[in-house]
């Protein structure tokens, strides 16, 4: 943006509060015409619109200063962990464990978003020890998705074992469907039926989306023919037919409780 001003008044203009990106284009044109007519010397100030330099906000992010400082300290300590095995634990004591619940969860969300998977796992293990902690299937689904994307499949197994060991799981159908989708996306079919049994054990009844993900995903896999048959029998008991398997699902974008974006199928 070019703003034309009289050189004699330049110092006062630079200190003026109104000089900024909001200056109107028509004002600039009027000044140019006036100075051409009078022959007054002019200077051109090039101004950059700072809004163009701003990185887009990550949807669902709401980091306090304390959370940001904790993330930075954890990442630094984790990088030096091999040189000083106590440094990371010291940062957990001095920075992380002093945070409020909301900030702790924000730290975990941000580390997952940045795909610092192993550090995020340490943070999650620490959060599980808090008195206020309540397990959320959607959080586990997000973690498994991120870990699988990073090809940390042994850690996927570990996180899933943590999920199975939880005592008070809510019947969170959206979370279970997200988990099914992640497992199927990365061909982790060995965990699929176990997860299906886990869902039923917490009185979470599968819906049409659940059966579509599982049956359509397992069909054609020879090793999973038995599992597919069991799922079809259950679907028939609940819905009476399997025509809904052929239906296309609408999608909507939602933000999970962990702040990560995911697509949700609407039955």
UniProtKB/TrEMBL annotation:
Keywords from UniProt, A to Z, are:
Repeat
Write out the GO MF terms: RNA binding
GO biological process terms held by the UniProt record: chloroplast organization; Group II intron splicing
Compositionally biased intervals (Polar residues): 30-44
Parts forming coiled coils: none
A Pfam family recorded for this sequence = PPR_2
Region Disordered, annotated ranges? 30-57
Kindly give the PANTHER family that the UniProt entry links to this protein.
OS04G0475500 PROTEIN, PPR CONTAINING PLANT-LIKE PROTEIN
Name the record gives this protein = Pentatricopeptide repeat-containing protein
Name the species this protein comes from.
Answer: Acer saccharum (Sugar maple)
Its taxonomic placement starts with: Eukaryota, Viridiplantae, Streptophyta, Embryophyta, Tracheophyta
